[in-house]
UniProtKB/TrEMBL annotation:
Protein name: Class F sortase
SUPFAM superfamilies according to UniProt: Sortase (SSF63817)
Keywords, ordered alphabetically: Hydrolase
Record PROSITE patterns: PROKAR_LIPOPROTEIN
Region of interest called Disordered, as start-end residue ranges on this chain: 25-51
Coiled coil: none
Domain of life of the source: Bacteria
MF GO annotations: hydrolase activity
Amino acid sequence: MTHLSRRAFVTVAVASLLVGCAGHSDDKTSAARPHVTTPSANPPTTPGRSVPVRLRIPGIGVDTPVMRLGLAQDGTVQVPPITAHDQAGWYQGSPTPGRTGPSVILGHVTVGAYGDGVFRRLDRLRRGDEITVRLENGTSAEFAVTSVRTVAKAEFPTKAVYGDVSRPELRLITCGGPRTGDGYRDNVIVFAAAHPARH
């Protein structure tokens, strides 16, 4: 990514996470409307750049389809819809899982009246736990958890999550901590790196 597009990516991604995972069908993202230009925020799929279609995390019982997430009309990153059949979503402005850089997958911890979300147990992951992302082209990217952090949304570690890295990495993000009104105070962030035995 260029410096401009990376800054735009960080801005809109953080804005959506601060307001977009309360788990209610009437969630709005109007509280954060960054005015950014993002010419490469939703790049088209090109030959050699497959997309993730399934996420498996055996340690916490996750086996979910993965949808694509782009930008909402207000310029924030979309979040998966609140539905009975909750699933994770990959922000397609981030690298494809398995390619160099931090790939970002978001999911809900709760989905309103439907109950638990697909990432309800994300904070139970531990260092070394395995994550598999299956791509549309039939290949898979394998990762191992390096750390799990619960941070206040007001102190979201932007550089640590979205900064440049020299290897394929993965970020799984949801809400966590105590409830505050219609939302949650914190974000749970899983950091994972390409599995050394497979890359």
